[in-house]
Amino acid sequence: MTQALENTFETERWGRFEFRAKGPSGGNPFTDVQFSARFRDRHRVVEVDGFYDGAGEYGVRFMPDTLGHWSFETVSNVPELTGLKGTLEVVAPAPGNRGPVRVDQVYHFAYEDGTPFYPVGTTCYVWNHQGAEREEQTLQSLSQSPFNIIRMCVFPKHYDYNHNEPGHYAFEGSLEKGWDFARFNPAYWAHLERRIQDLQDLGIEADLILFHPYDRWGFSAMSRETDDLYLRYAMARLSSFRNIWWSLANEYDLMAEKTMQDWDRYFRIIQAFDPYQHLRSIHNWHSPEIHYRSNRHWYDHGKPWVTHASIQHADLHFVTEWREQFRKPVVVDECRYEGNLNHGWGNITAERMVECFWEGMAQGGYVTHGETFVHPEDIIWWSHGGTLHGESPERIQFLHNIMQEGPQLGPTGINFKWDAAAGGVDSEYYLVYFGTSRPAFRVLPLPEGVRFSIDLIDTWNMTITPLEGQFEGTCRVEMPGKPYQALRITKVKTGG
Amino acid sequence: MTQALENTFETERWGRFEFRAKGPSGGNPFTDVQFSARFRDRHRVVEVDGFYDGAGEYGVRFMPDTLGHWSFETVSNVPELTGLKGTLEVVAPAPGNRGPVRVDQVYHFAYEDGTPFYPVGTTCYVWNHQGAEREEQTLQSLSQSPFNIIRMCVFPKHYDYNHNEPGHYAFEGSLEKGWDFARFNPAYWAHLERRIQDLQDLGIEADLILFHPYDRWGFSAMSRETDDLYLRYAMARLSSFRNIWWSLANEYDLMAEKTMQDWDRYFRIIQAFDPYQHLRSIHNWHSPEIHYRSNRHWYDHGKPWVTHASIQHADLHFVTEWREQFRKPVVVDECRYEGNLNHGWGNITAERMVECFWEGMAQGGYVTHGETFVHPEDIIWWSHGGTLHGESPERIQFLHNIMQEGPQLGPTGINFKWDAAAGGVDSEYYLVYFGTSRPAFRVLPLPEGVRFSIDLIDTWNMTITPLEGQFEGTCRVEMPGKPYQALRITKVKTGG
């Protein structure tokens, strides 16, 4: 097989390398043909699944995470896909490529290159099922938005305001004739991949939702074998995208067909077949404090294969508790959406949406946006994408700028009192957010022996006003007595 | 003792009759002399404690609850106070006198004459310790306010903004020289009584707080014997005021000296020595959902001597749960106050204060107002009374009018969804409050076979707009898509 020696490729670190080969097209190549490749960097070997892409084409993708020379060799149960070899020269990443996002400092996130990542997410569940024109419009809107991660589904959505048919499906077949769950539809996957790449090009992470309950096609109630096959195929095709996060489900607890054991199994499959160990989470419907009669329980985010807690809950006050409970990053992925929908989850004010962000963030958690305004053509950002109409995104951008200027936040030893959400790094930095509480002044119990400067931040009007003087120990701060104020308290750097 | 036959008096039903007599002034009449009277209406006998009023004067008070002829005879351990007799002619109450307030229909209140009482309370903890001028000003403010019950303390308050000395004390002695806890100060009690009577004249109930923790005088840490003597004396002097409610404590759980057994004993003393069984409650500091690390528990409002739950909690969402838990009226006596204080309990907006009222009331609970604006002379309504500065009282009046026009509210079989607070009487009347949720329309699952009219209520702007047409079964209602709206849904009365 001297041919293989000629296969020399180049890709950047955390780029996506794809090797393609011709193979059998008869029978069912999706299930009959095993195809993978072993990528080797000296003594390290990474084995990655390949996939059948239709028309006798096979592909295998690889996201290298170190620079230098890699070699690879394919593995298959058919001769023509066995032992294909090549070398891969991994070069420095282009600007903007910082690698996949990882958990950082227990409760936070950072790109693999070490740059902190402060997620400010939004929700467009099935924007990728709305046709080229709407999808391009959504990308355009995203490019002008603060959002750096998006919650989106593999499968189409059936629900109020969501009755259109998608242009294509993940499997061969049709709703009328039934699905051949053993045969994937490569065009569908290529489209999904294109959209994930579009997001990557915008610097946006894709929190890809693998299952969800809002379904009229049967994708929420496939057999266990189909679910597992689907996950393996998704891993093979998608895990080489550095901007992928795996969300096992939106509102898993509304999927009556699935058991906790199923969810455990899905997590383990992803853990086993995503060579890059992208972030993994699962998102609940039920909120114990709202549906207090319910005896449902959340999936245990403490399980080892869960990298961060993805939570639906309207009360951000619990972020501190969840951090302590799970000892992982907490992302409140649904806290109700800015809008005026008939549904309670979609009719909060922009003020409240922004308040959720600040309240969660000040406690060292993260919060996700959504928007649900009644629209004459039922084009609603939360599901379809399109354009943004609300008043919260620019304020979320303002907050994101402040986050990027400061350290990752955690609980402080200073008691800023229960009517404020506060976090920081003790004796260095504090962010204290008052929400709808509106004190006319405040006595702050700052540490003795450290001098601080304080900025008064109007989180709604997006102004930052440095307070005169320096502050130390127990000190009084005059405040405007109106809602949505925050204090940024920063240790004064002493000259040297 | 023919003298007794000459003692013929007249009072109105639920009025306050007082019989006075001369007796010993030597020794300690407060503890040495027992004095009571037995009031008899045919076979019914009500024995009521009398009290020493200083200067050799003894009094015994009685609030008759039935019309007609009553006779009475005094009982004492000293001869000159023994066997004094008289008759009491009880006549119909004057307009405005509806008797004491009782629990009605398990979860509600009504005057003893059957008129529903919808408490809209306020808080002026020590308005009665501020001197004549301020106290008259407070009464004037109350007369122009919506409030029909006030939370107020027997003892003075020591706390931020509360450092003045009261004009008089409940006991003989002084802070410097110490108190004689076995001797009461009749002038102090006469003043308190005058203020309770002033409230009664305004049609306002007095929710009298018997103990509280904010103390520099020692009244929060008296001996058990003193506590019990104090309660007996208070019962003897005050229980004949028809507008009295007993609140055992403000924030009982901050009074470290007292045990749960103490609170039980106080309740039982009041139960035994208040002949009229005025309403009894106890008020917490700790909120489990806010101070979630705490292992404190609430006093069990389910105990038989507690007539209604008096709760401090910032989240009105739990009203339904508390109703079910205690099976008694729920009054959220502190849900934070309208104002701009440095303290979290005193810096919410008027919008939020009004929201608390509507949210609690729609669930069939009751809510209490308070106001805490920073003031150049530290005159703050919550503690001192004075004048009202906020924007909530007129909206509370608006709500009270609506409550009085409708029935007492309970949970309904209709699911108006979790983003609304709703209550009613099934198939007759529903009140649905949306708070900061702001749907642009709503699909209501009204009963079939009943026709309803619907009013759109803007609870902030205080407008009531009848919606066109009649409504039945599942129906769509257009709404303005802005916060603080409610729907009043009333069965259409058919002519006959």
TrEMBL record, chains A, B:
Apiosidase-like catalytic domain boundaries: 108-366
Signal peptide as annotated in the record:
none
Cite the InterPro entries for this sequence. Apiosidase-like_cat_dom, DUF5060, DUF5605, GH, Ig-like_fold
**What are the DUF5605 domain coordinates in residue numbering?**
418-490
Residues annotated as domain DUF5060: 11-77
Q: Name one Pfam family in it.
A: Apiosidase
Q: Tell me the PANTHER family matching this sequence.
A: DUF4038 DOMAIN-CONTAINING PROTEIN, LMO1036 PROTEIN
Record-given protein name:
DUF5060 domain-containing protein
From which organism does this entry originate? Paenibacillus abyssi
Q: What is the lineage of its organism?
A: Bacteria, Bacillati, Bacillota, Bacilli, Bacillales
